[in-house]
Each structure stands twice: as C-alpha cells, then as structure tokens.
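Chapter review: from sequence to fold.
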Amino acid sequence: MLIGVKGLADYYKEGRIFNNMLYGTIAGIVGIVVAGAVAIGVLINSLSGFLYKIFPGWNGDWTTLSGMTPTTANLTFSDIAPFLVAGVAVFAILFVSTIIVALLYRRSLSSLRDRSGIGLFGSAGNVLLVGAVLAIVLIGYIVIWIDLLLLAVAFFQLRPIPIQPMPTTQTIVPSAVIPSEAERSSAPISRIEGKKHCLYCGAEFSAEASYCPNCGRKQE
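The token string follows.
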C-alpha cells in the first residue's frame, strides 16, 4: 500500500500524502512491538510462579506438565494480577497506537482528497478515525473493515489527469508591402554587373530574367 501511495504522492507532487501514511505505519509497528515486549516480559517473569501455583507438584520440567492435573485452590489475586495488568497495558498501548495511526492516515487521505478531488478519501479518513476510537469495543473493528471497503472504492475512482497541451504562440508575419504605382515607376533599374531591381517589390535579380524571383511579376 505504501508503494502505491508513494506513487500517488509523486504524481500529485504532494509529499504529505506519503509522509503521513509512512509515519502512521511506523507508529503502528512501534505500538505492536512495545505491546509484544510487555506481554513477553510478563510471561517470562510471572509464568513460572503461576504454573507452580496451579501445579503444586511440578518440578520445573516442562515435559511433565502434560501428565499433571491443574488446580486453582492455591491461586490468589496476586498470582493473576500481573497477567491482568499486562493485558490492560497491552490493550492500552495498542489502543493509543491505533488512534495515532488513524490520525496520521486521516491526514494523508485528506491531502489525497484535496489533490485528486475525490471526496471519498476524506470520508474514509473520518470513518477510520471513528473506527479507531470505537476499537475500545469490538464494533470499532467492524467500522475499520467498512473503511477498507470505502478506500478500495475511492482508489478505483482515481483517474489520470489529462495533460493540457502547451499553448503555442503564432508568429504573425506581416504581408509584403507592395509599392505604389509612383514608387514602382521611380524604382531604379540597375544594370550594374548584370543586376536589376524589380519594378514592384524592389528585389535585386539578374538582368536577363524576365520575371522577378521574389514576387513573380513580369518586368516590363
């Protein structure tokens, strides 16, 4: 998706389209990594003690767990509290990162809406933000799936902008100035070195020619 958005950002010459989506993607990856690290840390620190509680005769050998029967008689709230806290922490981290991702994606889609003229991109950004906020309950994920459909429809509405031809400047060549009858009668006829001038346009040409090579008129 990022590759396609990068192409659109280059096409519309708007860096915010790609940058905001890139930052949102990075924020989502960081949120997942942090949430995973918290979950793994809690499991490493608390899982063994929890297993000793529910398997009183366990000797620490993981291969013997399959043949043992768990019991919850020895469990107290302090034994399960680390897992509850870790679960809340992981959910909070994912929720906050989802909001950040939605905000950055919304900015990217708003820029794309402004450049492409397709309002559905802006609507998809708003729906994504609503879905991220509602992710605290399960209905938010349904809204996000609907938003993905809106995005697909918006992308299919993209059309290349026709390139307008560059305006051409037409050079107006002034028409030849035809001399008047008086000017033609007074036009000099030069016989110097076998040359003469046209009686009509004044062009110089060979004295043996009967027609002017410039205007094509017969010389009297």
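Two observations follow directly from the output. The mean pLDDT is 82. The beta strands are 195-197, 204-206.
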